[in-house]
# Entry
Amino acid sequence: MTNLVRIGLLGCGRVSGRYLEVFRDELSDVAKVTAVADLVGARTDRFAQAFGADIVDGIDGLVRAKPNLVCIMTESGNHAAHALALVEQGVNVVVEKPVTLVLEDAEKLAAAAKKHGVICAVVKQNRYNPAMRFLRQAVDGGRFGRIV
# Structure
């Protein structure tokens, strides 16, 4: 496929290992990681080598790389600011949970995404996990009584 979705990665820490596996092993026919940014150079090196991606300098570097989508995997307290900075530059983002730490930031981010016509999505990696689905069904079915 020649029209691969160009992916940028912001943050190459602990959770990013799963992204590496998914993009390399499951999505390589539809997506290509083209740019990576992190404060720790050794971490970006690993991703750059794995994907043949460019190492860029932070959010500005990612914007200049012109990805179709940036996955934000930085520290939780930085998700909102990083997502907002990218969204305001017209970049689609997928943000690790929590997308924000306070409701006002979530509202501001949603408004910015709408204003700039981009997507801002949140990862819910356990939503379809069999154990979580079983637990959800048990709770919904009243198996544990009334949960307060």
